[in-house]
Amino acid sequence: MDELAQAYGLSRFYMHKVFKEIFGRNIYESIKSIRFAKSVLFVANK
């Protein structure tokens, strides 16, 4: 996220704020959710 914010010339704080406004949750919650979904799929396919 820091690299993305830097690439667009935005502060880390502002990037997190915009992400939450758009997606309704912060980046860390989103990453955890994606990882959990991938884990479920992995276990289901074994």
Summarize the structure.
With 46 residues, the chain is mostly helical. It contains three helices and no strands.
What is the strand tally?
A: 0
Class of secondary structure makeup: mainly alpha
What's the number of domains?
A: 1
Shape: elongated
Number of H/I helices: 3
Low-confidence stretches: none
Order of helices and strands: HHH
Q: Tell me the radius of gyration.
A: 14 Å
Strand-residue fraction?
under 5%
Terminal CA distance = 32 Å
The biggest sheet amounts to: none
Portion in helices? over 70%
Mean pLDDT: 92
Based on the model shown, name its key terms.
46 residues, mainly alpha, 78% helix, elongated
Characterization of the model:
The protein is mainly α and 46 residues long. It has one domain (2-44). Helices cover 78% and strands 0% of the residues. It has 3 helices and no strands. It has helices at 2-7, 12-23, 27-44. The termini are far apart. The model has no long low-confidence stretch (mean pLDDT 92).
SSE topology:
Blueprint: H1 2-7, H2 12-23, H3 27-44
